[in-house]
């Protein structure tokens, strides 16, 4: 690369800078970012390996195929060194942060003129264009988090100024550090561009979670905790907020009909009420109606009191309702404060009847469960936590919330939780349609709910229509992902089967070079396609038999019957070989030459009756017994390992297609994904994100190890309110036991 790429600038900047003490919060960010980038980079290199393998399989010539395999070998050998170089460079950015924008601006300015461009090689220019496109896209995609982080780092680093800010995590620094790290790879421009493409896809595109984590650490340290950015997205959100559609006041509420599910919920609710009543009896509390010093507040009065309570008094709101931690509201205290306002001055203290008090307690326990439910994604959990006052108003006005599973507010909460189960904190909230939809629903409830429960029915209907469209798109993408993965796995298995079979057959004899070449470099391709198409064309066994026939024809045949059979077999064998090689587009200029060599070798074998030489290497026989001993030790170790994870393998086998899980990275970050396919022939579990795109694949044993280490969690997908009520019943039973 030329100096125009900014690589030399980085190297000179780091070498010139002296190591300075790094603040504690920056050290935390550095360790998290370096570990996180290391995990993401591993995924990028794995994808590069897969891409090069696929290109090699589809290569049109031996030279092209060898080129890709050589690139694979080069990258595999030097991969660890590149990863280490990249992580060290990133860590150094936090000790001596380069000024943001200098690298890219310097490189772009130097490329601005025709004279400068004429000095840059075509390959370097092509690589630089890809690098600049990657940086530009990342800066646009993560504009908000990058601006916040740059502003906060300006408070941390004394050398930062308004005209010359610093940000160790700026995309231009990370991309240039990676480009510098891969200079050690002796690969051509096409393979280098593949490497940059996968780095963009797996590392740069996932910077969001690391940027969010860095901002969170600085916020915890008290560095600009209340940052507000009013960019284009913010203005759009404000516009949407101002133009919220008004609900028609004359729209009737949807009637709910009783169902077996509702009957079950009603029985469950009555069971909860009985246990709450038992708690009051055990506590020696007399009935409210028998106490002359209390004035029991009626339903209508209580509803009016709740309607007079502004939501923002108990639940602070802002532009982004999912900022911060879930909000805890003491509903009992809120109601007590409202009752204090209802004092009529007649000497009697306002109080609730037992039924209303049970409902308030139940709403409190419900949200205690919601705020502690790990299955909810963090942003959705924060959003739902803001609905405590509205749900309390719903329950006080319509007491069927707990006894009817089809209650509009209950259905909406279940839908929000179910839709948001796959939402990860690393996702870009500002550009995510699902997040915006959930955010707007919560915002509308907070702004518009006035006691009319039909609002929840309207919102639920709109949300289901939105989900139907989104799920249709995701299903199509997921279907393509499954088909692609099945095809890739089948191709990989086909190649492994062909390589193993030929290796086993050819290892027995020292074949003439032309025969060996035509089988390994030509006929192997026909066998590969025959294996893939065997379900339709049934030519795999024919392809294998052709190899056996060729080897048989090279053996000595002295008996007249065998020699007669040889004469019958060879013409059809040559015809089959030529047709197969032509079908796979074997090099036409070499085909006639290779077939001529093949005919010559067959004729020589028949004429001279010479045997092909069998391979009998004495070292292999000598090493056979020690190898068996070593294999036994490995098997013994494997048995111990299998026993340790056996219970986890059983849990993995219990995961069904469509179930959601959460993976945690070593740096503490996490992502959620759904099991999309189980490819049994390869023992491969394929997971996709909400959009249907593949995010990870692992086999059964790898998943069991992840679960054993606590880095894989199965997420419960039942209805949120149903799970909450079950948890409440369990809690009450333990208290009344």
TrEMBL record:
<feature type="compositionally biased region" description="Low complexity">
    <location>
        <begin position="234"/>
        <end position="248"/>
    </location>
</feature>
<feature type="region of interest" description="Disordered">
    <location>
        <begin position="1"/>
        <end position="21"/>
    </location>
</feature>
<dbReference type="InterPro" id="IPR012434">
    <property type="entry name" value="DUF1631"/>
</dbReference>
<feature type="region of interest" description="Disordered">
    <location>
        <begin position="234"/>
        <end position="264"/>
    </location>
</feature>
<dbReference type="Pfam" id="PF07793">
    <property type="entry name" value="DUF1631"/>
</dbReference>
<protein>
    <submittedName>
        <fullName>Thymidine phosphorylase</fullName>
    </submittedName>
</protein>
């Amino acid at each position: 690369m030329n100096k125009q790429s900014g690589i030399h600038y980085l190297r000179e900047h780091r070498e010139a800078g002296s190591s300075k003490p790094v603040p504690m919060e920056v050290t935390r960010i550095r360790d998290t970012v370096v570990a996180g980038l290391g995990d993401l980079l591993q995924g990028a290199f794995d994808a590069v390996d897969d891409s090069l393998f696929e290109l090699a399989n589809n290569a049109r010539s031996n030279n092209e195929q060898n080129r890709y395999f050589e690139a694979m070998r080069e990258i595999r050998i030097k991969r660890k060194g590149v990863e280490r170089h990249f992580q060290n460079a990133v860590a150094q950015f936090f000790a001596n942060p380069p000024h943001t924008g200098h690298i890219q601006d310097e490189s772009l300015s130097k490329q601005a003129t025709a004279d400068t461009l004429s000095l840059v090689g075509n390959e370097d220019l092509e690589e630089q264009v890809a690098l600049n496109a990657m940086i530009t896209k990342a800066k646009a995609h993560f504009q908000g988090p990058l601006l916040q982080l740059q502003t906060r780092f300006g408070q941390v680093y004394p050398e930062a100024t308004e005209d010359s800010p610093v940000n160790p995590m700026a995309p231009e620094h990370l991309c240039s550090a990676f480009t510098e790290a891969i200079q050690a790879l002796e690969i051509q421009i096409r393979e280098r561009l593949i490497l940059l493409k996968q780095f963009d896809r797996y590392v740069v595109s996932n910077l969001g979670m690391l940027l969010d984590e860095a901002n969170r650490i600085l916020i915890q340290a008290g560095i600009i905790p209340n940052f507000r950015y009013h960019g284009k997205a913010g203005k759009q959100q404000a516009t949407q907020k101002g133009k919220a559609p008004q609900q028609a006041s004359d729209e009737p509420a949807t009637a709910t009909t009783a169902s077996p599910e509702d009957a079950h919920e009603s029985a469950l609710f009555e069971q909860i009420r009985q246990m709450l009543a038992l708690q009051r009896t055990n506590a020696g509390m007399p009935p409210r109606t028998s106490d002359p010093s209390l004035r029991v507040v009626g339903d209508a009065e209580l509803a009016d009191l709740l309607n007079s309570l502004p939501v923002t008094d108990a639940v602070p709101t802002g532009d982004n309702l999912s900022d911060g931690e879930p909000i805890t509201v003491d509903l009992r205290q809120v109601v007590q404060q409202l009752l204090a306002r209802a004092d009529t001055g007649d000497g009697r203290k306002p109080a609730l009847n037992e039924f209303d008090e049970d409902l308030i307690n139940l709403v409190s326990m419900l949200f205690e469960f919601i705020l502690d439910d790990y299955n909810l994604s963090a942003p959705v959990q924060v959003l739902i936590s803001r609905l405590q006052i509205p749900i309390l108003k719903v329950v006080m006005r319509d007491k069927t919330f707990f006894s009817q599973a089809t209650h509009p507010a209950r259905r909406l909460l279940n839908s929000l939780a179910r839709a948001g189960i796959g939402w990860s904190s690393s996702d870009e909230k500002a550009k995510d349609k699902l997040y915006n939809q959930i955010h707007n629903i919560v915002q509308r409830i907070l702004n518009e709910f006035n006691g009319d429960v039909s609002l929840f029915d309207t919102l639920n209907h709109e949300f289901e229509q939105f989900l139907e469209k989104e799920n249709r798109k995701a299903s199509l993408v997921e279907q393509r992902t499954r088909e692609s993965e099945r095809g890739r796995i089948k191709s990989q298995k086909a190649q492994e089967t062909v390589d193993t079979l030929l290796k086993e057959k050819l290892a027995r004899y020292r074949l003439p070079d032309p025969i060996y070449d035509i089988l390994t470099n030509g006929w192997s391709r026909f066998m590969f396609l025959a294996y893939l198409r065997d379900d339709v064309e049934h030519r795999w066994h024919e392809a294998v038999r052709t190899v056996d026939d060729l080897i048989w024809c090279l053996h000595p045949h002295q008996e007249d019957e065998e020699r007669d059979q040889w004469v019958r077999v060879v013409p059809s064998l040559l015809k089959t070989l030529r047709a197969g090689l032509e079908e796979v587009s074997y090099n036409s200029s070499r085909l006639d030459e290779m077939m001529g060599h093949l005919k010559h070798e067959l004729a020589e074998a028949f004429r001279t009756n010479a045997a092909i030489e069998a391979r009998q290497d004495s070292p292999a026989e000598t090493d056979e017994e020690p190898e068996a001993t070593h294999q036994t030790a490995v098997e013994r170790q494997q048995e111990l390992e299998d026993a340790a994870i056996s219970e986890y393998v059983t849990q993995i086998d219990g995961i069904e297609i469509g179930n959601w899980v959460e993976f945690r990275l070593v740096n503490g970050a996490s992502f959620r994904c759904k099991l999309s396919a189980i490819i049994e022939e390869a023992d491969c579990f394929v997971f996709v994100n909400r959009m249907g795109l593949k995010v990870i694949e692992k086999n059964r044993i790898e998943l069991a190890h992840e679960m054993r280490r606590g880095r894989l969690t199965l997420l419960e997908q039942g209805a949120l309110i149903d799970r909450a009520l079950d948890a409440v019943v369990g809690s009450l039973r333990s208290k009344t036991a």
